[in-house]
Amino acid sequence: MANLQAQTDSLMARPHGARPGQASATPPAVAEQALLVDLLILRGQVLGRIADYERAAELAEGLVRDAPDAGTAWLARARTRATFHGFAEALADLDAAGRRGSDGATLDAERAAILQAVACYDEALVLRRSAAQRRPDFTTLGALAVLRAERGNVAQAERLFTRARRRYRGVSPFPVAEIDFRRGLMWRGERDLPAARAWFDAAVDRVPAYAPALGHRAEADAALGARDTAIDSLRPLALSSDDPEYAARLADVLSDAGHSHEAEQWRISAAARYDELVLRHPEAFVDHAADFWLTVGGGRPKGRQLVLRNHASRATRALALPHHVIPTGSWLADPDT
Fold this sequence. Notes:
Layout: H1 2-13, H2 27-47, H3 50-66, H4 71-83, H5 87-99, H6 104-117, H7 121-134, H8 138-150, H9 154-166, H10 174-189, H11 193-206, H12 211-223, H13 227-240, H14 244-256, H15 260-280, H16 282-294, H17 300-320, H18 330-333
Helix pairs in contact: 1-2, 2-3, 2-4, 3-4, 4-5, 5-6, 6-7, 7-8, 8-9, 8-10, 9-10, 10-11, 10-12, 11-12, 12-13, 13-14, 14-15, 15-16, 16-17
């Protein structure tokens, strides 16, 4: 984490963008700023910092403005747009990056992630399988494992997760922690909480500050009856993260444990933050806010309104996608999906 922080701080301290009288940013400057975008996204994922995602999005917009002929700039903006669920815009940016010479395999991996996010699993599978057949390494096998896990193909996913881990040749703990976390999500979906907790714990062993793994491990602890342990994990997360999910989870566990006064304080904090994020990033946060209000938030009418809004927004976003990636079936028919 110290290394990640140092890299990020170093790049943020450097001047970026085109200088006065210069038509566009230089290639080294574009590469540095694109790397900074990726590092901010990574730090946002690890620490649960939405502010890092927002800063990355600002930088990526500047990159496209200052270096419109650089595929790297468009790729960086595609990643930030996908982070905030601007999927149609992200796909358009990937196409623009391709026209400017970006690597086709990299672009296909980004497209596959978007296709998974909008439940176009068959289309995503074609891209994931092709990548794994061309180069069966940690990245491609891990991505295919995650897709299989999301589709409920647990046996296949388990084999792929194991193969991917054996092929890791890097020194950074972040990719391994992420794949362990994804494995935990698969077992949580299978309602095997001990197995899920074990993989969340493995992710935390790799990266002790990994907020998503800490949060889901605490959720598993609470469900398994270890409420005090869950509370002890969630309190620091609710304080350090600007993602209201952790404050909402803490409020829920505190309420179940009989700490109603503290639970109410965290509920109010989460409610205010969700309202703010729904205004700023509706595509990314309407569904989370709806779930909050329908459960611990205690505002079912508001939650139902947000569910309807999310349903309409998903349909609108689907129509904005290229025709070959418009999902069919329950994704549009079921507002709870």
